[in-house]
Write a structure and sequence with these properties.
Blueprint (H helix, E strand, L loop, with lengths): L1 H34 L6 H9 L19 H22 L5 H29 L17 H8 L2 H19 L3 H18 L8 H19 L6 H13 L2 H4 L2 H13 L5
Helix pairs in contact: 1-7, 3-4, 4-11, 6-7, 7-8
Length: about 260
């Protein structure tokens, strides 16, 4: 009986998560579509609607881009993520909740962000000049490179088309900080709101990233030896992750995916 109640609760939390993310995504994508100078039609419009990215421009100029290999690589990464997920589900009863939560997040990011996104990019990239949504983020040599060029280019497109012009108009030289703050608020809606706890953590995470990006030109990690520059980037992205993926989110959404049958 307790397990059934827990399953129902988890399902409701997941429904809130999907609803929050879905509504935000639909509104932002509609805003980008309306703001674009050129808009796709017909089959290209259907392709754009199936694309997780925001910018409709690639779908107004079809062009074959064979041999990318993104889909094959994405499928391998996705398969590895799914295999890791199965292994984690089997091991979950013997692990702490914290371990299951953090390993579960790693599995989800690998499977969806690094795997499925490349499958979609490769599939649509055969006809439309789309960008990879997550372009080898571990190769980043600075936070600016990570957030501007390699991690979630759909969000970068959203800022460029929808929010950056408003931020520059209203916030002037603080526009970049405003965009990081906006990212924090959007993640509050996707991470904190569904579980009604942990508010402030995602916003603090992205404000910390804004401060670090602002200080980077003075520190100059892009000029450092490549391993050291990458270590700098990884540390600043990963060390504050408990602010972003806070414990209430991990316990309510991530842990049940892999340990719903656990007695812990």
């Amino acid at each position: 009986m307790a397990a059934a109640i827990w399953l129902v609760f988890t399902a409701l939390v997941f429904a809130n998560e999907i609803a929050a993310v879905g509504v935000l995504y639909a509104v932002i994508k509609l805003a980008a579509f309306v703001a674009a100078d050129q808009r796709p039609e017909g089959r290209a419009l259907a392709a754009y609607l199936s694309w997780p990215g925001v910018d409709p421009t690639p779908f107004t100029r079809p062009r074959c881009r064979p041999g990318r290999g993104w889909a094959a690589r994405g499928a391998l990464v996705m398969a590895a993520g799914l295999a890791a997920g199965v292994a984690l589900a089997a091991a979950a009863p013997h692990l702490s909740r914290d371990a299951v939560g953090w390993l579960g997040i790693a599995v989800l990011l690998t499977t969806v962000h690094l795997g499925l996104s490349d499958v979609l990019s490769g599939w649509l990239g055969r006809r439309y000049p789309v960008r990879r949504l997550f372009a080898d983020p571990l190769a980043s040599r600075s936070l600016r490179e990570f957030w501007s060029l390699r991690w979630n280019t759909a969000y970068v497109e959203m800022n460029r088309i929808v929010f950056a012009p408003l931020a520059r108009r209203w916030c002037g030289r603080h526009a970049n900080t405003a965009l990081f703050a906006l990212s924090g608020l959007l993640h509050e809606a996707a991470i904190s709101l569904p579980v009604l706890r942990g508010f402030g953590g995602p916003t603090a995470y992205f404000l910390l990233q804004a401060v670090a990006v602002h200080l980077e030109p003075r520190i100059g990690p892009a000029r450092w030896p490549r391993p050291l520059a990458r270590l700098w980037t990884w540390c600043l992205v990963l060390a504050p992750l408990p602010l972003l993926f806070h414990a209430p989110f991990r316990d309510a959404l991530v842990v049940p995916l892999f340990a719903v049958w656990s007695t812990r």
